[in-house]
Specification:
Organism: Duganella flavida
Distance between the termini: 66 Å
Keywords: Cell membrane, Membrane, Transmembrane, Transmembrane helix
InterPro entries: LapA_dom (IPR010445)
Helix content: 55-70%
GO cellular component, one term: plasma membrane
Shape: elongated
Largest sheet: 2 strands, antiparallel
Strand order of the largest sheet: 1-2
Structural class: mainly alpha
Oligomer: single chain
Protein name: DUF1049 domain-containing protein
C-alpha cells in the first residue's frame, strides 16, 4: 500500500512539474491604485492557491473549535454519569410483572 501511495505521489509530482514548465511565461497582475505584480504564471497560480487554502482553513477554525468544545462537554457529562452510576451501587430493580 505504501508503494502505491508513493507511486501516485510521484506521478502527481511529475504532472505538476510538467505544468510548471509549460506555464513559465511572464504575466502582469493589475491591482488597485495602479499597483502591478509581474512574475511567472505558475508562481501566481501557486500563490493564489496557497492564499485560498489559508483562507479556507481560517474560515473553518471557529467551527472546529466549537465542535471540540462541545465534544469536551459531552465527555465530561459521560464521565460524571459513569461516576454517579458507580457510586450508586444499588442492585437492579426487579421487573414489574404481575404474578398470579
Amino acid at each position: 500500500m505504501k508503494f502505491i501511495s508513493t507511486l501516485i505521489g510521484f506521478i502527481i509530482f511529475v504532472l505538476f512539474f510538467g505544468f510548471a514548465l509549460k506555464n513559465s511565461q511572464e504575466v502582469d497582475l493589475q491591482l488597485f491604485l495602479h499597483y502591478e505584480l509581474r512574475g511567472p504564471l505558475v508562481l501566481m497560480l501557486l500563490g493564489f492557491f496557497v492564499a485560498g487554502a489559508v483562507l479556507g482553513v481560517l474560515a473553518l477554525t471557529p467551527t472546529v473549535f466549537r465542535h471540540r468544545r462541545e465534544a469536551n462537554k459531552h465527555k465530561a457529562a459521560v464521565h460524571t454519569l459513569q461516576a454517579s452510576a458507580l457510586q450508586a451501587n444499588q442492585p437492579p430493580q426487579p421487573d414489574s410483572v404481575p404474578t398470579q
